[in-house]
Amino acid sequence: MILGRAFEDMCAQMYYRGKMFGFVHLYNGQEAVSTGFIKLLKQQDSVVSTYRDHVHALSKGVPARAVMSELFGKTTGCCRGQGGSMHMFSREHNLLGGFAFIGEGIPVATGAAFTSKYKREVLKEADCDHVTLAFFGDGTCNNGQFFECLNMAALWKLPIVFVVENNLWAIGMSHLRATSDPQIYKKGPAFGMPGIHVDGMDVLKVREVAKDAIGRARRGEGPTLVECETYRFRGHSLADPDELRDPAEKAHYAARDPITALKKYLIENSLASEADLKAIDKKIDEVVEDAVEFADESPVPSQSQLLENVFADPKGFGIGPDGRYRCEDPKFTEGTAHV
């Protein structure tokens, strides 16, 4: 959680210094959800995120250097600088992507869960008990993909956990004003799966619920819908002046900071000392500073990378065998409409 918080605070600094471009959505305040769920996974398990995906990537094990470099648009980023803030992806860590449009990651996650079931039951890979976590926000729960995928996952008993990070706001729309029944977890039983509500500001409570849901999926008992009630401490994105939320509401949730709460728990139960926790802070600061330095010094992508990953065969259209754009060849458009 400390890594997630420090990383996002640094992202804000770098964004305002002009090191990052486009929209950048920070995760401050929601760290208990990412940590409570993802740290229970195996490397083979999959995670599908949203546009607020930096900390999900870090929790899944993607190095801070690779995430920061991606934000800087550098070739050393986890997507070689082509994904940016909203599209973190790592095949090695089975992070199947951040997704810019709400809801679009849920069908991908459902497909990943189907893959696990298919490998186990059809291809007879007995040791394939891989689980998928699908993260999304409260605003997404009014979208069609959410309902369609809950139905499919329950029908086929897929090994997936649908994790709603209900931070009470969909950009500037209050969850209470947008949803006929604001208790999202109740939608689970409607599709024949458990629906659970948990305090998303308490990492230990989140972890307890996550253990049950992930274990259930791993045993082949089907999906679970978990609603984690949490709060983002910053605006929707770094371009959001955050003037719509009541200051009293923000202060209420700031007093329930998941990191502060865990520190208090650790000290009161003699699980760690102040010195231990300060050592963690220091170590994380070094990791984040190193990530920034590495990203800043990394090279930007070459022009020849522009059309890669656009087509299934990167050399089949825009780039010739010599690595140059085919459109640089005068004969490229011969016999076609005027370009």
From TrEMBL:
One of its GO terms (biological process) is pyruvate decarboxylation to acetyl-CoA. GO terms for molecular function: pyruvate dehydrogenase (acetyl-transferring) activity. InterPro entries: DH_E1 (IPR001017), PDH_E1_Alpha_Subunit (IPR050642), Pyrv_DH_E1_asu_subgrp-y (IPR017597), THDP-binding (IPR029061). The keyword Cell wall biogenesis/degradation does not apply. Its cofactor is thiamine diphosphate. It catalyses: N(6)-[(R)-lipoyl]-L-lysyl-[protein] + pyruvate + H(+) = N(6)-[(R)-S(8)-acetyldihydrolipoyl]-L-lysyl-[protein] + CO2. Keywords: Oxidoreductase, Pyruvate, Thiamine pyrophosphate. It is an enzyme of class 1 (oxidoreductase). SUPFAM superfamilies: Thiamin diphosphate-binding fold (THDP-binding). Residues 5-302 form the Dehydrogenase E1 component domain. Its EC number is 1.2.4.1. Tetramer of 2 alpha and 2 beta subunits. The pyruvate dehydrogenase complex catalyzes the overall conversion of pyruvate to acetyl-CoA and CO(2). It contains multiple copies of three enzymatic components: pyruvate dehydrogenase (E1), dihydrolipoamide acetyltransferase (E2) and lipoamide dehydrogenase (E3). This is Pyruvate dehydrogenase E1 component subunit alpha. The lineage of its organism: Eukaryota, Viridiplantae, Streptophyta, Embryophyta, Tracheophyta.
